[in-house]
Amino acid sequence: RQEIELFEKRTPKSAEAHKRNLKRLPLGVASNYRAYDPYPIFVKDAFGSKFRDLDGNEYIDHNLTFGALMAGHCHPAVMKAVEKRLTTGTMFGMPHDMEWELAEEICARFPIEMLRFASTGTEATMHTVRLCRAATGRDKIIKFEGGYHGLHDAALVSVKPKLEQIGDLKAPIAVPGGQGVPKTAVANVLIASFNDLESVEHRFKTHPNEISAIILEPVMMNVGICMPEPGFLEGLRELCDKHGALLIFDEVKTGAKLGWGGASEYFGVIPDAICLAKSIGGGLPLAAFGASKKVMGLISDHKVFHGGTYNTNPVSMAAGLATFREVLTRENYAHVEKLSHKLVTGYRRVVEEVGLDAYLEIAGANGVLMFAPKRVRNYRDWLEVDASLWQQYWFAMVNRGVMPQPYWWDEQWTMSVAHTDADTEKHLAVFGEIAPALAV
Ligand code: PLP
């Protein structure tokens, strides 16, 4: 309560703006993920590793648009490319040279032969699922309980189901993520438990020759950070091969943030299809999805339809090219990793010193302080996370100028290439200051 009062005292202009927005925008925001109580902070401007709110408070930004800005705000190389592009046409709806250039950059890092571009992660996973259905002639997919893949009907199933709705761990019940998701869509989504190959095998056994693909985030990040246990991804690969299904890595977050070559390089497991978005655009909307020539050839053969007015928008493509060439470099990954380790080591020290019942998890540029009694292996473990303590942590950090993700369930921080040692030291000093109150 004390921290919320302080929050309200520091951010009256955001409160006012939110009150005004409520009259025109449901929940007063443009995406449900931006809404939280008592009201969300409104941004004035952002540069590098920081942003300022309407009241002029400055924050070290670790939310970074829900992890979509590993470039940091206004990265100079991205800005230069965008500025140049702005004067030479912002929309063509026709092919241009940057498509080939960026396709080459992406195919050099990820194990795909052909790709198509889009603007959002939702589009990337939606088109990929459709392609896999067409490639196998089967309608059903397996998705993991708690996994998030965007907002289309096949994805909005069992994202945050309530404990009383979900049934047996080995055969979780598929729960629509709100009204308006058709029953027929839900019926085509089979739910399995992350890190539990038996639950996946059970689906293949009970639905022989019906499952087109398994879709997953190789590191599940919608439940804090949930790492795949050794052998899990390899096991999924084997099960897909055995049952004639395709393996989709939703790398909307991990693609740019686990390291140079995304999850396939990091874990050494090769999926059949990859979805990319968020941090590949360096701050502009950009997504891509790709697979083998055989699968993507379904589009060439006019069997699967894909289009989009904004696909390969030249401004986004210019930003994407600059991002791949000058932001997502091996040197920058080394920088981000070094800072992440410094941060997590500092966190661990404080957690131990104050005796906090929590643990740290880190995956490339992402990290989280999990207020959980044991290591989270799946969605059900995550339900035991102390969400109120997580909220208390969030308000206390924000009130002192550090912005973790404003939701109590995602990875808590993304480290960008713009973050510095000084940012990390301030972050740790703030955590050191607030941690004793969390341990009470
Ligand atoms: N897939 C994953 C793993 C995501 O984290 C998200 C967004 O958070 C999406 C898909 C959807 O991306 P978008 O919000 O760009 O539609």
From TrEMBL:
Essential cofactor(s): pyridoxal 5'-phosphate
Q: Which Pfam families does this one have?
A: Aminotran_3 (PF00202)
Q: One MF term in GO for this entry?
A: transaminase activity
Q: What is its EC number?
A: 5.4.3.8
Q: Which CDD domains match?
A: OAT_like
Does the record bear Iron in its keywords? no
User: Which pathway does the record list?
Assistant: Porphyrin-containing compound metabolism; protoporphyrin-IX biosynthesis; 5-aminolevulinate from L-glutamyl-tRNA(Glu): step 2/2
Q: Which UniProt keywords apply?
A: Isomerase, Porphyrin biosynthesis, Pyridoxal phosphate
Q: What class of enzyme is it?
A: isomerase
One GO BP on record is: porphyrin-containing compound biosynthetic process
Family in the record:
Belongs to the class-III pyridoxal-phosphate-dependent aminotransferase family. HemL subfamily.
**PANTHER family, per this entry?**
GLUTAMATE-1-SEMIALDEHYDE 2,1-AMINOMUTASE, GLUTAMATE-1-SEMIALDEHYDE 2,1-AMINOMUTASE 1, CHLOROPLASTIC-RELATED
In Swiss-Prot or TrEMBL terms, this protein is called Glutamate-1-semialdehyde 2,1-aminomutase
* Species of the source: Koribacter versatilis (strain Ellin345)
